[in-house]
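User: As part of a screening pipeline, I want to sanity-check one entry by hand. Below is the sequence and the SMILES for 2-acetamido-2-deoxy-beta-D-glucopyranose. Please return the complex as structure tokens so I can compare it with the automated output.
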Amino acid sequence: MRHPIHLLSAIFLLPLVTPFSCSLTASSIPYDLSPLQGIREVSKDTATPPTTSEAKVKMELCEPDGIGKEDGVADEDQCPPNTKVCLTLLNHKPSASDPDRVTAVIPIWPADIPDEDVFTTPMGKNGEQGLKIYVQGADYAGVRQHLNLTLLCSQSDTAPNPTFVSYTSGLVSLEWSTPDACPRSADSPTAPSNGSSGKGGLSFWGFIKFIFWFSIIGLIAYFGIGIFYNHQQYSAKGWDLIPHRDFWREVPVLLQDLFAHLFAGLRGNNSERGGYSSLG
Ligand SMILES: *[C@@H]1O[C@H](CO)[C@@H](O)[C@H](O)[C@H]1NC(C)=O
Ligand SMILES: *[C@@H]1O[C@H](CO)[C@@H](O)[C@H](O)[C@H]1NC(C)=O
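Assistant: Here is the complex for your manual check:
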């Protein structure tokens, strides 16, 4: 039986996910972004005559240590190594003595920012459209920096890098169409489940729900038919209408007995009593 394990890990582990993890659950929809691990780079040029301005994003979504240090680049021209998303602004002027000047280095998503500054929101009713990651970063030049990363669920797009949408007033907007932005349980909606945690969990609760309602309806039918029968057959009245009255009168005593046994088994000696204490 694997279901109780899943249930336990869901209950005990979920509140502990502190550092951003690429295997995440947003509004109880599971995503696995770990295939997006690796350093990704994307940039956008804007003509700013007589120069060209370039905004360059370097990103490492999954590695907990961030993008690391790039060799051959001055420290002041790159973000600290433990940055997940770094924005660099460059200015290109071919005729200048320094044709590729770095004008700003902005750590947008430092790996060590608190949990509550990272927001993950599923898109679409069941997250089938993807996942939105919004990050509140630090101040840069007096402006709070933000990241708006839209991961679009697409089975056909496999772009190795995100698209740079814009950088305005401290907000970096990136968009990335990838199959890895699809919820995990929706990977293969038509394929039979191989006992994956999502589907298994669902059918487990479905089963419990089925048993619950089945018992309720069964009890109602039992008493309804029993009372009707006793009334028609014996013209019974009052408590005599209840089917198997003697048995139901015994039930409280039986329950009391059962609990007495249970507690005796839990409290005392490790001796097993009728199997009640041998659940493990
Ligand atoms: C984030 O970017 C998407 C486009 O990728 C845009 O539609 C959306 O409005 C942006 N969100 C914010 C808060 O700016
Ligand atoms: C299910 O298991 C079969 C073999 O046991 C495998 O070929 C298939 O890829 C699995 N499907 C999924 C969705 O994991």
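Points to compare against the pipeline: Residues 29 and 125 are 10 Å apart (CA to CA). The chain has two domains: 20-184, 199-267.
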